[in-house]
Specification:
The strands form two sheets. An eleven-stranded mixed β-sheet has the order 7-6-3-4-5-2-1-16-15-11-12, covered by helices on one side. 12% of the residues lie in helices and 44% in strands. Strand 4 and strand 5 form a beta hairpin. The protein contains three helices and 16 strands. It folds into two domains: 94 residues, Immunoglobulin-like; 140 residues, Immunoglobulin-like (Sandwich), CATH 2.60.40. By secondary structure, the chain is mainly beta.
């Protein structure tokens, strides 16, 4: 009887050792494949970034080369274009010499494939219509208005009182209306107003509209077939008697797909580690865009 108990105990120990031994094996973390490329309608084929995220096993203080060896091919309207590594930029692939004069045309279908020793990634899409700005109108407020500049949010641990570190001042709002030629109704638009003079407080930028992402079909349509969007930014001044200081303003419009809209609206999300990806087998974004921008001088 004692011998049977000993044998049973030995079997349990062997099985336990095998079980816990297998459980303690941690799969090797090699990082995630990252692929990024933006095909601009009417422009030559762009570079493609192919990298790998830093594995958790490599400390931030240790050197890490994010570049990977890869085969990159682009099929554009049935024609295959080969990409080669750019020796001057680690992790960047550029079109082979025979494809560097190729232009990405509106409506072209593309399929980008990336093959590494361990991974493969594919991205597909259609290049958007060419975007053309046709008109910009700027309206400046007649006089400065009072504003509250909030720099930080301080929550007291000893009470339930909420304290705001704030100061008062004056701002001059500037409204910018932009018009462009309308296109396919299912495409999306991203707008950006980038003045050289910017707010010291991100809270005020939040309440104004310096940038937006929206379906193009939602923009105001004119009888001439053009679409219009209006945004607002503001410039801080010292007093109510001050006039708007002369400054440079860059107005940018970008047309793309709904997938780009998801990427654009998620790239600054604090709840995400990385933006929404449209690449199968990797993280990152590969998509067609059309961009038009202009820089103007704004002032009295």
């Amino acid at each position: 009887m004692k011998r049977l108990k000993f044998i049973a105990l030995a079997v349990v120990l062997v099985v336990s050792a095998a079980f816990f031994g297998c459980d303690s094996v941690v799969p090797e973390d090699e990082g995630n494949l990252v692929v990024n490329a933006f095909f601009d309608t009417g422009q030559p084929l762009p570079p493609v970034r192919v990298t790998r995220t830093r594995p958790l096993s490599i400390r931030l203080s240790e050197p890490f080369d994010e570049a990977v060896d890869a085969t990159v091919l682009l099929e554009l309207d049935g024609v295959i274009h080969t990409y080669v590594a750019d020796d001057s930029r680690s992790g960047t692939f550029i079109p082979a010499p025979e494809s560097r004069s190729v232009v990405a045309t509106a409506g072209a279908r593309y399929r980008l494939t990336v093959e590494t020793q361990d991974d493969s990634a594919i991205a597909r899409g259609i290049l958007p219509s060419k975007l053309n700005l046709t008109d910009i109108r700027i309206s400046i407020a007649d006089e400065p208005i009072s504003a509250v500049f909030v720099d930080t949010l301080d929550i007291g641990l000893d009470s339930l009182n909420l304290r705001l570190n704030a100061s008062t001042g004056f701002i001059i709002p500037v409204q910018v209306s932009v018009s462009w030629e309308s296109a396919i109704s299912d495409e999306w638009i991203e707008t950006r107003l980038d003045p050289v003079t910017a707010f010291a407080s991100p809270l005020i930028d939040f309440f104004f509209l310096p940038s937006q992402v929206f379906p193009e079909n939602n923009a105001l349509a004119g009888l001439d077939g053009r679409r219009t969007w209006s945004g607002v930014y503001a410039v801080p001044v010292d007093s109510r008697e001050d006039s708007l200081p002369e400054h440079s303003l860059k107005v940018t419009l970008l047309r793309s797909s709904e997938e780009f809209a998801q990427f654009a609206t998620s790239r600054d999300s604090p709840a995400r580690r990385e933006p929404v990806s449209n690449v199968d087998g990797a993280i990152g974004f590969v998509g067609g865009v059309s961009i038009d921008s202009v820089r103007v001088t704004v002032g009295n």
